[in-house]
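Severity: low
Component: inverse-folding endpoint
Summary: output formatting inconsistent between runs
Steps to reproduce: submit the following structure tokens with default settings.
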């Protein structure tokens, strides 16, 4: 069985066994299948995976994207191992690229005050104040509901987050 055969067309949409979500399917369709799609699972070698990773990095893809590709392949091959289609997961023999850690850029107190002063009267002013005073992430702020806020005790609870799915434009909780 090849990687290509693990994908089926189902009701006009691509369905990938082992891939959960459109993002992972997209990784398969754009990055993995064009290069490795016709390779038999049993014949897949660590060198082929390393070549794929190197090629994607040379094409200008971020190390994080290549790491996602590695995760998708690792999951697919773990499933193949569980189903006894392969004798080992060749992803275990290849290291995903290291993702460099970036230092978080934060506003100084003075910059925060200047920002809030400039935002006065803006329809989203309360959101900006909350963001600067709590350190909540964008998805946490946008997922807030009135039921999460207790005005009598002056507290709020972060119970959910929201993520935008890039290709579909759909928000997901």
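Observed output (run 2 of 3):
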């Amino acid at each position: 069985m090849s990687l290509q055969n693990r994908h089926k067309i189902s009701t006009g949409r691509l369905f990938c066994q082992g891939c959960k979500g459109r993002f992972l399917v997209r990784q398969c369709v754009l990055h993995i299948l064009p290069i490795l799609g016709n390779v038999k699972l049993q014949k897949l070698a660590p060198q082929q995976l390393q070549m794929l990773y190197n090629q994607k990095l040379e094409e200008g893809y971020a190390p994080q994207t290549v790491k996602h590709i590695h995760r998708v392949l690792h999951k697919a091959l773990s499933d193949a191992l569980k189903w006894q289609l392969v004798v080992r997961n060749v992803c275990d023999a290849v290291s995903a690229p290291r993702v460099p850690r970036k230092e978080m850029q934060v506003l100084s107190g003075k910059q925060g005050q200047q920002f809030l002063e400039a935002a006065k009267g803006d329809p989203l002013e309360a959101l900006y104040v909350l963001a600067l005073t709590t350190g909540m992430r964008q998805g946490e702020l946008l997922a807030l509901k009135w039921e999460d806020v207790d005005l009598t005790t002056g507290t709020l609870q972060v119970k959910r987050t929201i993520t935008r799915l890039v290709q579909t434009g759909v928000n997901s909780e």
